Automatic annotation (TrEMBL):
Keywords: FAD, Flavoprotein, NADP, Oxidoreductase. This is Sulfite reductase [NADPH] flavoprotein alpha-component-like FAD-binding domain-containing protein. Residues 150-228 form the Sulfite reductase [NADPH] flavoprotein alpha-component-like FAD-binding domain. It comes from Gossypium darwinii. GO terms for molecular function: flavin adenine dinucleotide binding; FMN binding; NADPH-hemoprotein reductase activity. Its cofactor is FAD; FMN. It comes from the Eukaryota.
Length: 242
């Protein structure tokens, strides 16, 4: 057992920081040079204002360099205080060209880059005449086609109140939002969690319409079919809100 006063006194004492153990890279005895190219990729993240920002990633980079590894691109660092997605996207775009050169077959005499493919779900799109569109009630609260709302079937509502809680002198932002859920059948209790889905900017919507060759008043539904060909019963309109 610990005495409360002694424990409190111990908490006041500065904690001694134990330095990390050195990383030693050893070759496995049964490892042979099979001619294959070995690539290590890592992306470090941490709050930018924290002491020793992304220290682990930097230390690993230094050790790999000391062991003779060749750095293809600068170490990727993502700042949690900023937009980490933008940091990762910018770093990723610098990685692809290097991987393309590294993974290209030496016997390949063509100048075409190594193709990168991704699995893309196929959807069946049904277009409707606006006059006969099967959307009798244009109330967006019913956009998900369900009477029960959850994380997969969100309820669309308008922001009724928006307040910035930080002063202009602050370099941070915390926004208080209140939503109008009139007529939705929903009720809010203290402690409930509310997720916010952002809509596309008008210029993004206009560009998408231009590329797709559609007019803004186009009505359509999107379906994904099961293996037996029957259409799934849920609506995914909210995921294709343009």
């Amino acid at each position: 057992m610990w005495d409360g006063e002694e424990e409190e006194e111990d908490n006041k004492k500065p904690k001694q920081i134990t330095p990390p153990k050195p990383l030693i890279v050893k070759d496995r005895e049964d490892e042979v040079d099979d001619g294959k190219k070995k690539v290590t990729i890592f992306f470090g993240t941490q709050t930018g204002t924290a002491e020793g920002f992304a220290k682990v990633a930097k230390v690993v980079d230094e050790i790999l360099t000391e062991q003779g590894a060749k750095r293809l691109v600068p170490v990727g660092l993502g700042d949690d205080d900023q937009c980490i997605e933008d940091d990762f996207t910018a770093w990723r775009e610098s990685v692809w060209p290097e991987l393309d050169q590294l993974l290209r077959d030496d016997n390949d005499t063509t100048t075409v880059s190594t193709p990168y493919t991704a699995a893309v779900l196929e959807y069946r799109v049904v277009f409707y005449d606006p006059a006969n569109a099967p959307v009798k009630d244009k109330n967006w609260n019913n956009a998900n086609g369900h009477t029960v709302y959850d994380a997969q079937h969100p309820c669309r509502s308008n922001v009724a109140v928006r307040k910035e809680l930080h002063t202009p002198a602050s370099n941070h932002s915390c926004i208080h939002l209140e939503f109008d859920i009139t007529g939705t059948g929903l009720s809010y209790e203290t402690g409930d969690h509310v997720g916010v889905y952002c809509e596309n900017l008008d210029e993004v919507v206009d560009e998408a319409l231009r590329l797709l060759g559609l007019c803004p008043d186009t009505y359509f539904s999107v379906h994904t079919d099961k293996e037996d060909g029957t259409s799934l019963c849920y609506s995914i309109a909210s995921k294709f809100d343009v």
